[in-house]
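Email to the structure team, subject: Putative DCC family thiol-disulfide oxidoreductase YuxK model.

Hi all, the expression group asked for a predicted structure before they design truncation constructs. Nothing fancy, just the tokens so they can compare against earlier work. One-line instruction: predict Putative DCC family thiol-disulfide oxidoreductase YuxK, return tokens.
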Amino acid sequence: MTRGAAARERPVLVYDGDCGFCTSSARFIERHVPVRAAFVPYQHADLDALGVTAERARHEVLWIDRAGRVGGGAEAVGRLLTCAGGPWRALGTVIRVAPVSWAAWAVYRLVAINRHRMPGGTAACALPADRRPGARG
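Reply from the structure team: attached below.
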């Protein structure tokens, strides 16, 4: 987790706007999860102001809270759900606590590697092998 540049009015979810699956997932969350956050494709985000690098934004979904703390991948999903409150808070909390967090990371990596095969996925969703979560350089 890193700290973003400045406090903001509401949290921000940064996702890959070129990926159909990622965009569909972000839109689904906007419609069905009562979280007050900005949803921004990294291609249109001021990443410097958010305190994240383009490399990280290409690699994983990011959640930047109001204080500027950054979480990525499964942690970002858990933090988004926690922020939504109600029953979502419980789910978000469970996702972020071991041993469930280990399984959440494994599922996140599996989905990220195969997002071009997921509903709404396109060829643009495929990550090069060296950029896939868990890839070894």
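The helical segments are 20-32, 47-50, 54-59, 74-84, 86-95, 100-113. The chain has one domain: 2-126. Ping us if the truncation boundaries need rechecking.
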